[in-house]
Design brief:
Length: 208
């Protein structure tokens, strides 16, 4: 893979066959260039869900470079925002979650304006995530936790608290260790100490 990537020419456009290797290679790079990220962005138009998900994850991982590109091109910022929100609605959970991780970064960036409508869509989809499989639920809790501890906006913290109040957090925590630990971290920040009970641990019987 790495030999093929190093031999890739400097054109921004990559073929559907080149994209997966390039996106994976860029994700694991310690630092990436603006050209790297522009090539990765092409992956968002792929017909392959995995490539789109990997591209989203790479933009999340190298968000500092993406922000620099936004400064140079406001249209690109809007395009990425629109594509991210579009992926919220995907029936493929891996693409949906990848998009929501990136949106979290967008929300936390001081230099990026996020429409209130997009924020509402984010929280509505987040609520639907808690009807999905335990991996989606666990990762959704992680996103909410990271958003809560990093935002300075009380309005966002309130939306997170409202979302948690609408779900059965204890039952979700009991589904898997991923849900349990991320739920526990979030419960601590929300002062919901009633969830600090062994009965919510997935290794134990809920009837204890």
């Amino acid at each position: 893979i790495y030999k093929n990537i190093r031999n890739t020419n400097n054109n921004i456009e990559l073929s559907e066959l080149e994209l997966p290797n390039y996106v994976i290679y860029t994700y694991f790079k310690k630092t990436s260039s603006k050209e790297d990220i522009l090539k990765v962005i092409n992956g968002l138009e792929s017909k392959n869900t995995l490539i789109k998900s990997l591209a989203m994850a790479t933009l999340y991982h190298h968000f500092d470079v993406l922000k620099e590109l936004f400064k140079e091109n406001q249209l690109l910022e809007k395009q990425i925002m629109d594509k991210t929100v579009e992926f919220f609605k995907s029936s493929e959970w891996i693409l949906r979650i990848s998009a929501m991780y990136l949106f979290m970064k967008l929300l936390l960036s001081n230099n990026i304006d996020v429409d209130e409508e997009h924020v509402e869509i984010f929280f509505n989809i987040m609520l639907e995530n808690f009807n999905d499989n335990h991996v989606v639920k666990g990762l959704s809790l992680e996103i909410l936790y990271n958003l809560y501890i990093n935002t300075q906006l009380e309005s966002l913290k309130e939306k997170i608290s409202e979302t948690i109040n609408k779900i059965d957090l204890g039952a979700i925590m009991h589904e898997s260790h991923l849900c349990y630990y991320n739920g526990l971290y979030l419960a601590n920040k929300l002062n919901k100490y009633e969830y600090f009970s062994a009965k919510y641990c997935p290794s134990l019987n809920m009837n204890l």
